Amino acid sequence: MGAANSHSPGSVLTGKRIVLGVSGSIAAFKAVALASELVKAGAVVDVVMTPAATRFVQPLSFEAITHRPVVSDLFADQGRSIAHVSLGVDANVLVVAPATADCLAGLALGFGHDALLATALSSRAPLLLAPAMETLMYEHPATQQNLETLRRRGAIVIEPAHGRLASGRSGRGRMAEPVQIVEALRTILGRTRDLADRRIVVTAGGTREPIDPVRFIGNHSSGKMGVAIAEAARDRGARVLLIVGAVSVPLPPGVEVQQVTTTLDLKAAVEAAIRDADVLVMAAAVADFRVEQVASDKIKRTGDEFTLHLIPNPDILASIAAAPLVKVGFAAETHDLLTNAQQKLVKKNVDLIVANDVTAPGSGFGTDTNQVSFIDRDGIEDLPLLSKREVADRLLDRVLQLLRQRSSEIPSLVGRESG
């Protein structure tokens, strides 16, 4: 089978029009960092500021990052037709961060006396709110009622955090961090993506089998490939559970993470997770053996030879039934790549094997790239050397095909059973 053309959608934020509303709070400085993160993620960001917000942060700070004019005066000539209307209509998402008590009241009551409120009235895009204010203001019944009104209309609220506030007091009222807001935006935009509402379980990293309290048997897995798959699935709208062993890369925000240590831990976690899953991608480097008897105390050096008695670990992937679950396995090999991978396809009864030679340049453990082959019962697709994120999206393209095929098969199976 030759290499297929990929139609991967890439980052969920790429090319999306985000209107960032900034109201008058000391937390406005965080909105500058948020704008920067969104631009780096590929979004087109238009900033709308209330007059009070410009007292805390100058519009030039946002313009330098977004390379787009800031709207702060409802009546100013912005070189476009009725700025607040065109921005509201064109937005994919309107996010207000920080959202002050005054701003929330205006949004709830439908006021339009400043550029931000008028833009919100003109928009039918999803509304994301990140409140920021003093604790007593946030807890006031009026503020809570306004938030409840906005939630009933469909707004998504990222609750403020506890911490030190502008007054010097501590309490709930600190605006959520930019990374949390970005991940909430990914989730909102992912709802219309091709893996929306699918539950995908991904394993990543290496398992560790203890020898004694300080030593273990491990491997060189960094977890980069599994993390890339989890991120790509998240960006395509899936609900992702990432089960990780030992990894040397940051864990992605916006996905559910469960950490494990040993192969038996991983087995238990996977078996529990797949009960409501559509897809299982086993990208973890699982230890094939474990020590039969783990020493309770540190083993001391004696100068003599020391022998470990190893027993086989269970084959997690082979023990899991397939349909309707889509099962994807990995084959990290050092020789006879395709032969070994094809044997795993049958032995483990999986829908797809991702095979790679970990000794090849630019491929394998710890690299940012990978050169893999996709192997299924119809043949082999060899991919060129790609970034691990590109491999992840190519893999999810294949997973999507399998899901659609599985969905078309289920009605006929039900019909045969009931006939």
Describe this structure in words.
With 419 residues, this protein is an alpha/beta fold. The chain folds into two domains: 17-189, Rossmann fold (3-Layer(aba) Sandwich); 194-298 and 305-411, CoaB-like (Rossmann fold, 3-Layer(aba) Sandwich). It has twelve helices and 21 strands. The chain has an eight-stranded mixed β-sheet with strand order 12-11-8-13-16-17-19-20, sandwiched between helices. Strands 2-1-3-4-5 form a five-stranded parallel β-sheet, with helices on both faces. Strands 6-7 form a two-stranded antiparallel sheet. Helix 9 (224-235) packs across helix 12. It starts with 16 loop residues before the first strand and ends with a helix.
Notable features of this structure?
Rossmann fold; eight-stranded mixed sheet; elongated; 12 helices; disordered N terminus; 2 domains; 419 residues; 34% helix; five-stranded parallel sheet
Write the layout of secondary structure elements.
Elements: E1 17-22, H1 28-40, E2 44-49, H2 59-66, H3 83-90, E3 93-99, H4 101-109, H5 115-122, E4 127-131, H6 135-139, H7 141-152, E5 156-157, E6 161-164, E7 170-174, H8 178-190, E8 199-204, E9 209-210, E10 216-217, H9 224-235, E11 239-244, E12 256-259, H10 263-273, E13 279-282, E14 289-291, E15 310-312, E16 326-333, H11 337-347, E17 352-357, E18 369-370, E19 373-376, E20 379-382, E21 386-387, H12 388-418
Parallel strand pairs: 1-2, 1-3, 3-4, 4-5, 8-11, 8-13, 11-12, 13-16, 16-17
Antiparallel strand pairs: 6-7, 9-10, 14-15, 17-19, 18-21, 19-20
